[in-house]
């Protein structure tokens, strides 16, 4: 009987690893396909190939919905190139399995057990129960939200531009915002300035903010909130996501008001109402959206530190956002708080969080923090960049945020390659890459060595 159970566990572990490989290699395939398309002369505005490095960097950033670029999206890429970028953002943001599911639904093919397992992992579901119906609802709602955002933004841009251009701007920025990508095509105004010309425009800022927040909440949270109207019946996960998201956005806004209020290069030169809006937009965009309302290079040192912290946390699991993830961060805080009070269990909303979840949160946190500091040091060592700006760039890449202190084009080849690896790692997800080893039960756990005593602290 024990041998049968062991064989079953081995098969489950292999299947879990195969799901992780499918997701990782599919994203890699999308990046390579996008790279080939962007190297075509037709993809560049000048009619000359942008070169392999620029094309691959842009394809990685678009597929991983990050937003870091070596060249301004509008001035570098033609309408064809921008269309390729938009497609990669959509596929990378909603998840490649959403696109695969759409093909299955269109062709009316039966979705097998393996495909359902991959789909469940792609949207962050804990089980395969009703995963196909969830995917259908996910895509319908996602396209509806992007469509509504495009309509509002098109109406706003119509006040300044012809209908065709306004429609293009509305669609591109709606998709980019909802997918938390941070790409913009406003370079015809000020190349590389991102949303600086609109960071105090209420319609643009609030519409983009709504799209970013909805995209960053997570597909399972939408599903639960829309299907269960009584908040008391929401799961612990949904409650934690909503509360943490609100605290981070408005807490970040408050911190930016305090730290940047008198900085003439960011908030200091604006009227009070616009200062509040710009602070809100900065706090919101750090949730891995990547739209720069103010010049990140001109933030105060304290403002940069808060930005790095917020970028590292990111959005929620199973969403278009990246980062450590909100609930992971909360579990870590609750664990630390309980340990300081001498408690061994972590509980919230009258529920106990398992030790496995706590250990996973610690593992992911240590991994991301370690990689971020190593990346910052590597950028510093290989490019003419200070450590603070290098760390800002590394966290922005691994958190798939896309904000930069203006140093991305100045990075040398080794640092550029590292940023691409970080963007890929951040989007495929620490949770996805560690899906196998976090659930695996190695043979070594069947026995334990005798305990030893150590001095800690």
Describe the protein.
The chain is an all-alpha fold and 457 residues long. The protein has one domain (2-441). Helix content is 64%, strand content 1%. It contains 19 helices and two strands. It has helices at 2-38, 52-63, 73-76, 79-94, 96-107, 113-122, 131-157, 163-178, 202-217, 219-227, 236-260, 272-285, 301-313, 326-340, 355-382, 387-398, 413-428, 430-433, 435-439; strands at residues 346-348, 351-353. A two-stranded antiparallel ribbon has the order 1-2. A hairpin with a 2-residue loop joins strand 1 (346-348) and strand 2 (351-353). The longest helix is centred in the first third of the chain and has 37 residues, at 2-38. The radius of gyration is 22 Å and the shape is globular. 46% of the residues are buried.
């Amino acid at each position: 009987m024990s041998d049968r159970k062991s064989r079953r566990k081995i098969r489950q572990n292999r299947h879990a690893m195969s799901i992780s490989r499918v997701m990782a290699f599919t994203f890699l395939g999308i990046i390579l396909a996008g790279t080939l398309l962007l190297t075509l002369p037709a993809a560049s505005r000048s009619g000359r190939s942008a070169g392999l490095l620029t094309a691959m960097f842009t394809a990685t950033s678009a597929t991983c919905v990050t937003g870091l670029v070596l060249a301004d999206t509008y001035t570098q890429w033609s309408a064809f190139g921008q269309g390729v970028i938009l497609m990669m953002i959509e596929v990378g943001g909603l998840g490649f399995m959403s696109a695969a599911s759409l093909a299955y639904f269109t062709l009316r093919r039966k979705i097998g057990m393996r495909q359902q397992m991959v789909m469940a992992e792609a949207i962050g579901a804990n089980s395969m129960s009703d995963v196909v119906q969830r995917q259908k609802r996910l895509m319908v709602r996602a396209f509806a939200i992007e469509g509504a955002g495009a309509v509002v933004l098109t109406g706003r841009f119509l006040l300044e531009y012809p209908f065709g251009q306004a429609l293009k701007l509305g669609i591109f920025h709606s998709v980019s915002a909802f997918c938390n990508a941070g790409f913009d095509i406003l370079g015809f105004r000020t190349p590389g300035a991102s949303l600086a010309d609109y960071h105090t425009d209420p319609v643009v800022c609030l519409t983009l903010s709504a799209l970013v927040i909805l995209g960053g909440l997570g597909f399972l949270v939408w599903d639960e909130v829309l299907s269960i109207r009584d908040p008391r019946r929401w799961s612990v996960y949904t409650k934690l996501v909503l509360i943490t998201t609100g605290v981070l956005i408005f807490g970040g806004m408050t911190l930016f008001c305090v730290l940047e209020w008198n900085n003439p290069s960011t908030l200091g030169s604006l009227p009070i109402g616009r200062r509040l809006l710009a602070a809100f937009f900065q706090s919101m965009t750090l949730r891995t959206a990547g739209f720069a309302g103010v010049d990140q290079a001109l933030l105060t040192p304290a403002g940069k530190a808060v930005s790095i912290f917020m970028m590292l946390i990111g959005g929620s699991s199973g969403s278009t956002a990246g980062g450590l993830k909100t609930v992971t961060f909360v579990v870590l805080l609750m664990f630390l708080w309980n340990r300081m009070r001498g408690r061994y269990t972590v509980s919230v909303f009258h529920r106990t969080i398992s030790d496995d979840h706590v250990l996973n949160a610690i593992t992911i946190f240590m991994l991301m923090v370690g990689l971020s500091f190593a990346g910052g040091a590597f950028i510093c060592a290989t490019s003419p960049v200070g450590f603070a700006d290098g760390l800002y760039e590394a966290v922005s890449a691994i958190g798939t945020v896309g904000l930069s202190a203006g140093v991305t084009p100045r990075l040398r080849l080794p640092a550029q390659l590292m940023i691409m690896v970080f963007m890929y790692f951040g989007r495929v997800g620490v949770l996805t890459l560690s899906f196998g080893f976090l659930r695996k039960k190695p043979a070594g756990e069947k026995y334990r060595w005798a305990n030893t005593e150590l001095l800690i602290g």
